[in-house]
Design goal:
Blueprint (H helix, E strand, L loop, with lengths): L3 H46 L1 H21 L5 E8 L9 H15 L16 E12 L1 H68 L6 H34 L24 H7 L4 H22 L4 E12 L9 E10 L7 H67 L5 H36 L8
Antiparallel strand pairs: 1-2, 2-3, 3-4
Helix pairs in contact: 1-4, 2-4, 4-5, 4-7, 4-9, 7-8, 8-9
Length: 460
Amino acid sequence: MSRSAPFFRHALNTVKSRVSILVAALILAAAPLAAQATADQFVREAVAAHRGIAAESLALERDQLALGRSRRLYLPALSLEAQWVEQKGGADIGALINPAFEALNRITGGNEFPTDVSFRFPLSQDARFRVAMPLFDGAIGAAIRQADATRAAQTARLTATERDVVAAVRTALLRHATAAELVRVRQAGLSALEEQLRSAEQRAAAGVDAPDVVLRARAERSEGAQRLLEAERGRDAGHRAVNRLARRPLDAPLPPVTDSSFALTVPATLAEARAAQALRPELASAEAQVALATAGRRAALATSLPSVQVALDYGWQGSSWRFTGDQDFTQLTVQGRWTPFTSGRNGRRRAEAALDLRRAELAREEARDQLALEVEEAWDALRVADAALIPARDRAAAATRTAELVRLRWDEGLATHLELVSARAAATAAEVEVVVARFQAAEARVALARATTTTVRSQP
């Protein structure tokens, strides 16, 4: 057993090592998905908390209520009307009736007909319930079309606002991540400069280099520290900007984001990008504005058409305030109205509506041209940003290798400190260029997804 114990310990350690490697691999594989889910969740929360989206949602709810109100104009309306009139003077109907009744009494030789009738209009009491409903009214149909077009335009505005906020939050997160990566590069560069300073001090103390080399190394270290402070300031400013956009505390933590955190599906060709332009909510809003102007023109035409409505009244009339069976009445009224001549007012109203329609059509054409230009520019920006990644990485690899070789030569006394500093600065600049190129490509992809309305969140 004592001989086999080392074997079992070695096997157990091997198993543990392989399990640890497997767990680490699974964690590394799941990290991008976890970051993706966190970033997407952050964007959703930012959209839910955005004041502009909340305001547009309230406006859409208001327009939906207005559309329902317009549609209910066709339904019956119940009203209660009551009045009491105190009148002095005026024509008395009894003055006309009493002489006739007196003549009838003389002819018949009796007193069957009253001769003291007193009756004036309007009656003192007039209380009624009225149920009225339009049978034909062109203005109602025009009002419904206007309300429907207004709602459609507001729906498109809400969609556009949500899309813009999503793109803005994603862009802000990417820019903050860019600044954070630059801080990392500057920190690594400062560490290298500090190592160079220590080496220069040792070489100067050993008499290998002149003392001015230490001064140059110290100056380079100070400049690197200053650049690190500037990078940290940019990172912190980006941090606050993201939280301000998401309506969170300015110092609240942000999700980890890389240039590949947002899985975006964009058109593969320029033709597909141009075709996707038709799905833009701005175009839907412009079409809704044209529909609204068309409905306004129909409303202007409706003022010259007749309208017909029916009303049913039930109430009480009399000279005293009483609600009895001998004072009630029922009345059915069919009322028509037509105003064929308005001294040119209707014609001018129609001309104004025609001008509004033409303006809406011009705005639609302008929106279509502007969106086409935006798609073209977004496509070119992504193409150029993607193309810039390869040379940036090649330059970074070459500059890093050169800096390593120069450092080896400097350690051996074959290169000057100026060559070492120049090589290190070139390597740092190349690393910065790679970081900027990566995140610029990610921002360009977000911009193209926004321009083509093909943004798709990846599924965690």
